[in-house]
Write a structure and sequence with these properties.
By secondary structure, the protein is α/β, with parallel strands linked by helices. Helices cover 41% and strands 14% of the residues.
């Protein structure tokens, strides 16, 4: 109060702040809020959310936690610690991830009540989602991140600066797919495949099965309408032939070939997956390319960096073999909603016994020439694929057969049958995620005589974790808190600063810059990087930015045809095309320039019902819906770039 005055301190005390994350950055922010008196007044509120629990390794850099907190909720423990520092702090701890699935928790009234949002997250996906919410509800966002000795902060201000998602780091270099699938030469490439197989088996596959159960063969038609090619559709239906080596995969694996009702069947599936991944795939590769194979250039095929692999024979006495089977079986059981009868059940001794039962039988494998194996010689790959394609059954016939098989299985399922997706979470030691990935990665490394690593190192690599040093974390939070002061004081844009710092460089390197102003969309000619040409467009409204919105009141009672009429009447705009997103897939709903099978029915459908049927969203609980896939023209026929459209359902 002596420095800033009572009025300023009073504003700090009455702030309504949302802190997303209570890890290393979150702990420092909470300490700062408590010491500054943020949200300590009668009307002040601080909501903190984090769905993670505290691990032993967190104690070295998340300084609000102690040994007795290990295994407890991060947000709850952090709030308890800071309220001991400042009992006046009005902090509320939540254990919900901020994501589309929790929009019932973090609903419109919650976002509208906030004064500022502070991100303390460790992944881009979550940052982008929070950034999108802040843009939609026009809330200031204070963003920060750390990477080893580096740190950065960003100020996002409604109608004044660009948002977090407007500028992205270049994508990380990725290993060539032929190296990941067939010719790895380091442990990182082995772990890339391990993570990919975890996601495919336990996250993607059950989601796609759920889609098929909900829609039946119509799901396949929707995939085609969304632009999926036949190879991709076959992958979803029966798995990737590069991985399965003739074993079932995709929806066929879950619903037909290996549907499980007991844990014994899950153990059998895990044992057969071991054989597929670590024996059959290598045997197939060596059949295609024997140890003495010679390329068309006359040099040995197995030349560095390629490593000559060897198949693994399953061994009950090998701890790594058992780790893989146990983790895979537990994850498979979770997929089918099977739970152990007691906390001590389904352990290693029980799995050993089940491996001796008929459920764990492994069919014989006979390798055959496989044209799908990719090498680093693209010309030879294409020649082999062209020859195989000329002799193969057309993909369309394969899709029809797989769809018919799945439809028959769908009709015979018991009432209430469902599968459960399992999103990767590296920090929960009880969920078997890292057990599966570390075992898979090390077994894959053993195939190729690559040095193996322990589970903790696998976690760092699979989660792409570079632990931040405490100084970088403190610097980032300190600069964000300075920007919070400026936000409360109402400082102009030219007084705000973004930070990039690298404490490992001489100096150290500290770079401060004024936040980039948000781009204003104006009518005229612009370069379109997607079309790779200049295009003429009309901006509506003129000079709008990503922060501007066109609200559509009373949308709950409108049909799509009524929405088109509303835009023509109120804004002299013609809705020419509409697509909606179902997960990561776009679904065409209406187009004035091309034929869409159910377009007429869609036009006559009320908007909440239409959105629910096409996206799977529960619109009965929605106060609004952001219509991001709409394309407009002016009534004069000019292409129009339109501000964000928000359908108001409340």
């Amino acid at each position: 109060a002596a420095v800033f005055g009572r009025s300023f301190v009073g504003k700090l005390r009455e702030l309504n702040v949302f802190l997303v994350g209570s890890g290393a950055l979150g702990c420092e922010f909470l300490k700062g809020f408590a010491m500054l008196g943020v949200a300590c007044g009668d009307g002040g509120k601080l909501a903190v959310t984090d769905d993670d629990i505290i691990e032993k390794s967190n104690l070295s850099r998340q300084f609000l936690f102690r040994n007795h907190n290990v295994g407890q909720s991060k947000s709850l423990s952090a709030v308890q610690a800071v309220t001991r520092m400042n009992p006046e702090l009005h902090a509320r701890a939540l254990q919900d991830r901020v994501a589309p699935e929790t929009e019932g928790v973090f609903d419109a009234p919650f976002w509208r009540s906030l004064d500022v949002v502070v991100n303390a997250l460790d992944n881009v996906k979550a940052r982008l989602y929070v950034d999108g919410r802040c843009v939609l509800f026009t809330k200031p966002l204070l963003e920060s991140g750390t990477l080893g000795a580096k740190c950065n902060t960003q100020v996002v201000l409604p109608h004044r600066t660009e948002n977090y998602g407007a500028s992205r780091d270049p994508p990380e270099k990725q290993a060539p797919q032929c190296a990941v699938h067939n010719f790895p030469h380091n442990i990182d490439q082995c772990l890339v495949l391990a993570h990919s197989e975890f996601v495919g088996n336990f996250d993607t596959a059950p989601r796609e099965v759920s889609d098929f159960l909900a829609k039946g063969p119509e799901w396949v038609a929707e995939l085609r309408a969304a632009g999926e090619n036949d190879e991709s559709i076959l992958d979803k239906l029966r798995g990737d032939v590069r991985v399965t080596c003739g074993a079932p995969g995709g929806c066929i694996d879950v619903l037909v070939a290996e549907r499980a009702t007991t844990f014994a069947q899950c153990v059998g599936w895990a044992r057969r997956r071991f054989e597929t991944y670590f024996h059959n795939r290598i045997a197939q590769l060596l059949f295609n390319f024997p140890p003495d194979a010679i390329t068309s250039q006359g040099v040995p095929f197995w030349s560095p960096p390629k490593r000559l692999p060897r198949p693994l024979a399953f061994d009950l006495g090998d701890p790594l073999h058992m780790q893989f089977v146990l983790a895979a079986a537990r994850l498979r059981a979770h997929l089918f909603g099977l739970a152990p009868p007691s906390p001590d059940a389904w352990g290693e001794s029980e799995v050993r016994a089940l491996l001796a039962t008929p459920d764990a039988a492994v069919p014989p494998f006979t390798p055959a020439m496989d044209a799908s194996i990719e090498t680093d010689n693209k010309e030879e790959d294409e020649r082999r694929k062209a020859k195989a394609a000329a002799e193969a059954i057309p993909d369309e016939q394969k899709i029809a057969a797989a769809t018919a098989e799945l439809a028959a299985a769908r009709g015979s399922l018991p009432a209430g049958f469902k599968v459960v997706a399992n999103e990767f979470e590296k920090d929960d030691d009880t969920n078997f995620h890292m057990d599966f990935i570390s075992a898979f990665g090390n077994l894959r490394a053993r195939n190729y005589a690559i040095d193996e690593i322990d589970k903790f190192q696998a976690k760092l690599k699979a989660g792409r974790i570079i632990p931040a040093i405490a100084t970088a974390t403190a610097m980032a939070t300190g600069f964000v808190l300075l920007e919070l002061y400026k936000e409360v004081a109402g400082k102009p844009l030219d007084r705000r600063r973004n930070l990039f710092a690298n404490l490992a460089l001489p100096g150290p390197l500290l770079s401060l810059s004024e936040p980039m102003a948000c781009a204003k969309i104006k009518s005229g000619q612009r370069w379109d990087p997607d079309m790779y040409m200049d295009v003429d467009e009309v901006a509506y409204p003129e000079g709008h930015s990503l922060w501007d919105q066109i609200p559509v009141p009373g949308a709950a009672s409108m049909t799509l045809e009524a929405l088109r009429s509303w835009f023509t009447t109120h804004h002299q705009l013609v809705l020419t095309e509409l697509t909606l997103m179902h997960g990561s897939k776009s679904v065409s709903v209406f187009s004035s320039s091309r034929s869409i099978g159910d377009a007429d029915a869609n036009l006559a459908t009320p908007l909440p019902q239409l959105i629910a049927s096409k996206t799977g969203a529960d619109t009965s609980k929605m106060a609004f819906y952001e219509l991001s896939g709409a394309i407009f023209q002016t009534v004069e026929g000019d292409d129009a770039t339109v501000a964000t459209i928000v359908l108001q359902f409340d």
